Amino acid sequence: MNALHGKVYPDAVSALRDILRDGMTLMSGGFGACGVPEHLIAAVKTLGARDLTVVSNNAGLDGFGLGVLLATRQIRKMISSYVGENKEFERQYLAGELELEFNPQGTLAERIRAGGAGIYAFYTRTGAGTLVAEGKEQRVVDGETYILEKGLTADISLVRAWKADTEGNLVYRKTARNFNPPMATAGRITVAEVEHLVEAGAIDPDQIHTPGIYVQRLVVGTSYSRLIEKRTTRKRPGGADGVVA
């Protein structure tokens, strides 16, 4: 199907059908279970693209987010920072079935930002003297060792925003701003799923986080999971099982 109106597509499958191919590099926004482009990830599963390299802070949860694509073996390589909540990821990696390029979290964020800004590479002290530095160019400046990290780009960036207008200007909420905004700039094609779509001009320009020039396609998502990645509680004094009488 074609776009309903300009950049707006009727659903996630329609938005990806003519651009998604085997062997592509994808960026997938989100931080833990927050701000994850659930509908676009589901569309990747439906369309069946394989041998994908995926750049994402984490690898989703079992049965949620990128965990869905791990379960179907559509991901060949992950470029990530935090992967500790996905047992299938762990199993595939330890079995040699999944390639992993591990990054310190701040380094990953800056690699994505640099890619979106057209910066080929940058030097950082983070990781110097550790396994992170192996195979990378190193330079000593003022007595400190720095390692060269390359910027990251993607064939397609999948991001999720809270609100968009029909021109693709995006607004994120809270933790969803951790990785979605830089990924939106680093994709050759950026597809955004949003919870609320409004007409062009309805968003105050001062409130826009990602300008629409970076966004090529939009879909409206519904029925989000609203998961809590890891629930932690403590007992409250004065009642059984932590409940105050």
Q: What structural keywords apply?
A:
globular, single chain, 245 residues, alpha/beta, 8-stranded mixed beta sheet
Could you write a compact summary of the structure shown?
Helices cover 20% and strands 26% of the residues. It is an alpha/beta fold and 245 residues long. The longest helix is centred in the middle third of the chain and has 13 residues, at 105-117.
Word description of this protein:
The chain is α/β, with parallel strands linked by helices and 245 residues long. The chain has a single domain (12-220), classed as Glutaconate Coenzyme A-transferase, CATH 3.40.1080.10. Helices cover 20% and strands 26% of the residues. The longest helix has 13 residues, at 105-117. The radius of gyration is 19 Å and the shape is globular.
Given the structure, what is the number of helices?
6
- Gyration radius, rounded: 19 Å
Strand count: 11
- Which spans have pLDDT < 50 for at least 5 consecutive residues? none
Q: How far do the termini sit from each other?
A: 58 Å
Q: Tell me about the biggest sheet?
A: 8 strands, mixed
Strand content is 25-35%
**Which CATH architecture is right?**
3-Layer(aba) Sandwich
Mean pLDDT, all residues:
92
- State the CATH class: Alpha Beta
Tally of domains: 1
What name does CATH use for the topology?
Glutaconate Coenzyme A-transferase
Helix-strand pattern, N to C?
A: HEHEHEHEHEEEEEHEE
- What level of helicity do the residues show? 10-25%
Shape estimate: globular
Structural class: alpha/beta
> In the CATH hierarchy, what is the superfamily?
Glutaconate Coenzyme A-transferase
